[in-house]
C-alpha cells in the first residue's frame, strides 16, 4: 500500500510530472501515434450501402432483370424497380439509425482523465496519444494499453480479457491492458500502445456493434432462406427447361415466362424489411435516450423471462441523503472523521458522496494512508494525523461485514435496515490498513464501533409502474444487491415485489451449482451479493432455462452484466458498466425498459407476419413451377403479373406491417410457426391458381392472355385472403390497408390503359367466376388451418 500526502489543489501530479505538452501531443498526432480506433456504435455509410445493395438476393434479381429487359417490354422489368426502391428505403432508414446511434454513443462514451500541460482534462478515448499519462479510479475502463506509473491500492479486473475472475493488484511498472477495468484503488498509467495495436482493439477488430449476431430472429430467417434455396434450385431448373420446350416457337415469350416463374420464388424483401424494422426500433428508442449497443438486445429483451435488478441506481436513485448519525463513542468527533474520509477519496461512491455533501472536510487533518472501497471487502478506510498530532485510522463500511455475528450494534443496524435505510458503520481501527486489506477477516478483531451513519435512499418514481409491467408480462423480477439483505427486503416490500418478506443473505448461499440454482429459483430478494456471486446467480438462472436480463450501474455489476443474456446499464454508471452493457439508459430512466420490450415485440411479431407473407409466395411459386413442369404448359404469369400481385398482397402491405405497433408476447420456434402457416397457405394458393388456370385453358381456345388473367385473379384473391388473416387483429388502418389493395387490383382490371400495361383482361364469365370460386374455397380452408394453429399457440 502506498502512503502519501494529499495533493494540494488537485493539479500537481505525484512525482511532479504534468503530462505531455501541447507540442508533444501535436508531434505524436502528426506521427500517427494516436488512438484512432474509436468505439463504433454503428457501421459506416459505405458498409450500410454495400450490405443492402450487394446481396445474394439482389444479385439473382439483378441478373433476371437484365435478361428480361433484353427480350421484353419495360412492364416485365417492374420487379427490378421494386427491389431498387426497397434497397434505397433500407439504406436510408439504416443511415438514420446510424446517426442516432452515433449521437447517443458520443453522449454515453467514457472520457478518460488525462494529464496535459500540468492540468487534468477529460478527453475522448480517440484523442489519447502515445506517452499520455492517464488517471485511473474505481469503475474506470482502461481504454489503451500502458504501464502503471503510480498506484494507490490499485486493483484491476482483467476477467473480460483473460477469463480470470480475481482482480490483479497493479504496482508501478506493471502492464495494464485495454478492455480491463479498475475495481479498487486509484493510480496513473502511461499509454504504450494505442489504436489498432492495443490489445482490446486486436480482439475486437472483427466485432461490429451494429449486428444481428446471436439473434434468434435472424438465425430463423437464415434457416428459411436455406429452405428457399434448396426448393427453388431444382424447381427453377425444371421450369427453365419446360418453358423453352413449350414455347419453342417464341424464344422471347419463353424467357419472360421463365423469369415470371423464378422471380416470385425469391423472398426479396424479407431481409430488407427485417433490417428496416430493427433500424426504426433504434431510432424510436434513441428518442427515449436509450442507446442500443447491440441490435439483438432489442429482440432479446422481448424474450426475457427473468430480470435481475440491482437496487442502488436502478430501483432507487443513485443520489442519497444522510438521515442520521448515531454516536456510539461519545468522545469521537464523528462529523470531522466523516468529513476527512470523504475528502480522502477522489472517486467517492454514492454513499460517500452523501457524506461529503453533509460534512465538509475538516482543517489540518493530514491523510497518511488509504484503503479504497472494494465491493468484495465492502469497506474503505484512511489513516490521518489529526490537528492535535495524534495518529488515527478509521474504517467505513457495512456493519455486518465489519462486526462479528451477534454484536449488539448489528441489532440497531438491522432496525434501520428494516425501514429501507442504508446503514454504514464508522469504526476506529487498531491495526495498519495494509494488514487489513491483505486479511479482511481480521477486521472484526481490529475495530471499535464509533458511529452508525444512516442514509436515506429514494425509490425511483417510475420503478413501481415498471415492475408492474414486467409482472403483467410474466417476467419474474429478482433483486440482487450488495446492500444489507434486510434493507433490500424493505425496499422491495415498498415496491410490492413478491418474496420481499423473505430476503436472503447471499453470504450463506450454497456454492454447489445445483443447490445455488434451487435457492435462486425459489427466492427473489438477495442482499450482500458479491460481484462474482452476481455472475454465478445469473448463470444459475440460465442453467434452468431462463432468459436473463441484468441491470446495474456499478463496477460490481460488470461481470453479471457481461454474462447475462441482456445487460442493461445506466448512463450515470461506471464506464466499465456502460462498456459491457448491450443497452444503456442514458437518462438513467428505468421506465425506458418497457419501451425496449415493446420495440422487441414489435420487431419479432411483425417480422413473423412479414415472413409468413414472403414465404407463402415462395411456396406457391415453387409449387406452380412444379405443376407447369408436370403439365408441360406455359407458365401462367409474366413478370409484370407477379410484380402486381406481389406488390399488392406482400410488398406494400409488408412495409406497413413491419413498422406497425405490436404487443404480442414473444414466443420461441419462430421458423416452425412461419412454416406452419406459409406451407398450407402457399399450397392452397398454388392449388387454387393451378385449378383456375387449367379450367381457363379448357374454356379458352389457345388464348394465353385470357388464361393468364383468370389465373392471376385466382392468385390475387387467395393471396389477399392470406393477407387479411395475417393483418388480424383488425384496426381501422389494417382494414383500410386490405381494402386499398383490393381496390387497387380492381382498378387495374377496369381501367383500359392499365389492362393493356399489365396485359390483364377478364374474358367471358365462366373462367373468371371459376377463379373466384377456387380462391373462395382455398380461403375457407385456410381459415380452418389458421384457427387450428391459433388454438395450438393459445394453449401453450
TrEMBL record:
Transmembrane regions listed in the UniProt entry: 53-71, 77-95, 227-246, 266-285, 610-635, 641-662, 674-696, 708-726, 733-754, 766-786
InterPro entries reported in the protein's UniProt record: ATPase_P-typ_cyto_dom_N, ATPase_P-typ_P_site, ATPase_P-typ_TM_dom_sf, ATPase_P-typ_transduc_dom_A_sf, ATPase_P-type_domA, HAD-like_sf, HAD_sf, P_typ_ATPase
Domain of life: Bacteria
Alphabetical UniProt keywords: Membrane, Translocase, Transmembrane, Transmembrane helix
Topological type in the membrane: Multi-pass membrane protein
Domain P-type ATPase A: 113-207
Subcellular locations according to the entry: Cell membrane
Record's keyword annotation contains Manganese: no
One Pfam family this sequence matches: E1-E2_ATPase
Alphabetized PANTHER family for the sequence: CALCIUM-TRANSPORTING ATPASE (PTHR42861)
NCBIfam families: ATPase_P-type (TIGR01494)
The protein's name in its UniProt record: Cation-translocating P-type ATPase
Originating organism: Streptomyces vinaceusdrappus
Taxonomic lineage from the root: Bacteria, Bacillati, Actinomycetota, Actinomycetes, Kitasatosporales
Amino acid at each position: 500500500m502506498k502512503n502519501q500526502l494529499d495533493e494540494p489543489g488537485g493539479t500537481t501530479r505525484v512525482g511532479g510530472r504534468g503530462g505531455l505538452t501541447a507540442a508533444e501531443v501535436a508531434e505524436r498526432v502528426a506521427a500517427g501515434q494516436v488512438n484512432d480506433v474509436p468505439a463504433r456504435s454503428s457501421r459506416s455509410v459505405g458498409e450500410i450501402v454495400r450490405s443492402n445493395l450487394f446481396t445474394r438476393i439482389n444479385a439473382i434479381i439483378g441478373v433476371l432483370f437484365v435478361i428480361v429487359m433484353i427480350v421484353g417490354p419495360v412492364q416485365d422489368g417492374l420487379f427490378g424497380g421494386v427491389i431498387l426502391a426497397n434497397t434505397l428505403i433500407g439504406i436510408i432508414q439504416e443511415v438514420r439509425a446510424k446517426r442516432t446511434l452515433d449521437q447517443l454513443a458520443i453522449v454515453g462514451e467514457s472520457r478518460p482523465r488525462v494529464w496535459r500541460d500540468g492540468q487534468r482534462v477529460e478527453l475522448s478515448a480517440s484523442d489519447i496519444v502515445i506517452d499520455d499519462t492517464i488517471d485511473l479510479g474505481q469503475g474506470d475502463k482502461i481504454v489503451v494499453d500502458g504501464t502503471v506509473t503510480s498506484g494507490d491500492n490499485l486493483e484491476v479486473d482483467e476477467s473480460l480479457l483473460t477469463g480470470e475472475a480475481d482482480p490483479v493488484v497493479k504496482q508501478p511498472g506493471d502492464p495494464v491492458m485495454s478492455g480491463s477495468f479498475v475495481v479498487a484503488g486509484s493510480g496513473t498509467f502511461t499509454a504504450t500502445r494505442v489504436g489498432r495495436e492495443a490489445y482490446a482493439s486486436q480482439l475486437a477488430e472483427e466485432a461490429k456493434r451494429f449486428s444481428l449476431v446471436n439473434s434468434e430472429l435472424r438465425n430463423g430467417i437464415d434457416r428459411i432462406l436455406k429452405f428457399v434455396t434448396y426448393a427453388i434450385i431444382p424447381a427453377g431448373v425444371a421450369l427453365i427447361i419446360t418453358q423453352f420446350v413449350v414455347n419453342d416457337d417464341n424464344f422471347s415469350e419463353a424467357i419472360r415466362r421463365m423469369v415470371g416463374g423464378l422471380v416470385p420464388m425469391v423472398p426479396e424483401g424479407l431481409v430488407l424489411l427485417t433490417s428496416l424494422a430493427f433500424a426504426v426500433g433504434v431510432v424510436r428508442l434513441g428518442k427515449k435516450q436509450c442507446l442500443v449497443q447491440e441490435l439483438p438486445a432489442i429482440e432479446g429483451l422481448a424474450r426475457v423471462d427473468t430480470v435481475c435488478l440491482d437496487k442502488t441506481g436502478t430501483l432507487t436513485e443513485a443520489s442519497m441523503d444522510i438521515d442520521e448519525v448515531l454516536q456510539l463513542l461519545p468522545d469521537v468527533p464523528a462529523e470531522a472523521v466523516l468529513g476527512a474520509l470523504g475528502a480522502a477519496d477522489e472517486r467517492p461512491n454514492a454513499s460517500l458522496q452523501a457524506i461529503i455533501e453533509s460534512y465538509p472536510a475538516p482543517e489540518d487533518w493530514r491523510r497518511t494512508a488509504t484503503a479504497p472501497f472494494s465491493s468484495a471487502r465492502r469497506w474503505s478506510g484512511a489513516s490521518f494525523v489529526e490537528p492535535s498530532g495524534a495518529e488515527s485510522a478509521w474504517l467505513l463500511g457495512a456493519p455486518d461485514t465489519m462486526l462479528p455475528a451477534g454484536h449488539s450494534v448489528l441489532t440497531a443496524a438491522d432496525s434501520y435496515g428494516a425501514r429501507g435505510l442504508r446503514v454504514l458503520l464508522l469504526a476506529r481501527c487498531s491495526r495498519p490498513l495494509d494488514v487489513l486489506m491483505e486479511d479482511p477477516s481480521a477486521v472484526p478483531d481490529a475495530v471499535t464501533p464509533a458511529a452508525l451513519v444512516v442514509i436515506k435512499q429514494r425509490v425511483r418514481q417510475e420503478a413501481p409502474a415498471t415492475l408492474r409491467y414486467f409482472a403483467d408480462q410474466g417476467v419474474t423480477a429478482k433483486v440482487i444487491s450488495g446492500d444489507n439483505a434486510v434493507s433490500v427486503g424493505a425496499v422491495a416490500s415498498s415496491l410490492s415485489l413478491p418474496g420481499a418478506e423473505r430476503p436472503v443473505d447471499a453470504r450463506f448461499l450454497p456454492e454447489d451449482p445445483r443447490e445455488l440454482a434451487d435457492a435462486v429459483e425459489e427466492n427473489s430478494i438477495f442482499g450482500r451479493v458479491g460481484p462474482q456471486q452476481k455472475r454465478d446467480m445469473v448463470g444459475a438462472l440460465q442453467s434452468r432455462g431462463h432468459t436473463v436480463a441484468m441491470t446495474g450501474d456499478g463496477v460490481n455489476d460488470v461481470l453479471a452484466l457481461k454474462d447475462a443474456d441482456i445487460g442493461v446499464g445506466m448512463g450515470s454508471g461506471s464506464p466499465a458498466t456502460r462498456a459491457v452493457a448491450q443497452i444503456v439508459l442514458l437518462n438513467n430512466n428505468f421506465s425506458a425498459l418497457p419501451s425496449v420490450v415493446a420495440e422487441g415485440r414489435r420487431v419479432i411479431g411483425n417480422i413473423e407476419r412479414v415472413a409468413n407473407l414472403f414465404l407463402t409466395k415462395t411456396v406457391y411459386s415453387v409449387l406452380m413451377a412444379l405443376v407447369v413442369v408436370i403439365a408441360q404448359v406455359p407458365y401462367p404469369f409474366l413478370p409484370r403479373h407477379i410484380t402486381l400481385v406481389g406488390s399488392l398482397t406482400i410488398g406494400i402491405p409488408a412495409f406497413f406491417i413491419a413498422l406497425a405497433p405490436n404487443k404480442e408476447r414473444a414466443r420461441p420456434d419462430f421458423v416452425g410457426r412461419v412454416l406452419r402457416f406459409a406451407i398450407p397457405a402457399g399450397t392452397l394458393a398454388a392449388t387454387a391458381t393451378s385449378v383456375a388456370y387449367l379450367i381457363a385453358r379448357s374454356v379458352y381456345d389457345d388464348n394465353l392472355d385470357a388464361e393468364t388473367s383468370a389465373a392471376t385473379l385466382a392468385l390475387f384473391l387467395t393471396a389477399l385472403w392470406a393477407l387479411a388473416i395475417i393483418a388480424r387483429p383488425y384496426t381501422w388502418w389494417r382494414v383500410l390497408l386490405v381494402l386499398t389493395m383490393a381496390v387497387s387490383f380492381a382498378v387495374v382490371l377496369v381501367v383500359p390503359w392499365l389492362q393493356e400495361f399489365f396485359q390483364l383482361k377478364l374474358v367471358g364469365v365462366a373462367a373468371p367466376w371459376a377463379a373466384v370460386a377456387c380462391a373462395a374455397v382455398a380461403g375457407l380452408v385456410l381459415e380452418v388451418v389458421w384457427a387450428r394453429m391459433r388454438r395450438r399457440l393459445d394453449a401453450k
